[in-house]
Amino acid sequence: MIRINVFIQVSEANRTAVLDAAKELTACSLKEEGCIAYDIFESSTRPDVLMICETWADDVTLGAHEKSAHFATQVGKMQELAALKLEKFNF
After folding, report:
1. Which of these, 84, 65, 89, lies nearest to 7 by C-alpha position?
2. Which domains does the chain possess?
3. Which of 31, 23, 63 is closest to 8 using CA atoms?
4. What's the rounded Cα separation, in Å, for the pair 25 and 33?
5. Please, is 46 exposed, middle or buried when counting C-beta atoms within 10 Å of its C-beta (0-12, 13-18, 19+)?
6. What is the pLDDT of residue 4?
7. What predicted TM-score, i.e. pTM, was given to this entire model?
8. CA nearest neighbour of 24 among 72, 60, 87, 80
9. Fewer CB within 10 A of the terminal residue: the chain, N end or C end?
10. Helical H runs in the chain?
11. φ, ψ of residue 66 in degrees (nearest 5)
12. Distance of CA 91 to CAs 1, 18, 34, Å?
């Protein structure tokens, strides 16, 4: 399995738009084959930090996810409005 943690640092002005894009990405991703878990977390101590935590069955399903239209659209929106940092773990 593969775990991806995406840390998102966003200004107050862009927070709602980024959170909306992350919610749409989550809703679509949860329907994909191989998606075990996909969720958004909001920091309780830093209002400028969000995190997407996702778990995939394998590299094949993660690769298909990364090529999906909803991934390109929603991640593109988030990248325009915030700074994203990704961590990837295999387990």
Report:
1. 84
2. 2-90 (3.30.70.100)
3. 23
4. 15
5. exposed
6. 98
7. 0.94
8. 72
9. C
10. 15-29, 59-66, 69-81
11. -70, -15
12. 5, 29, 15
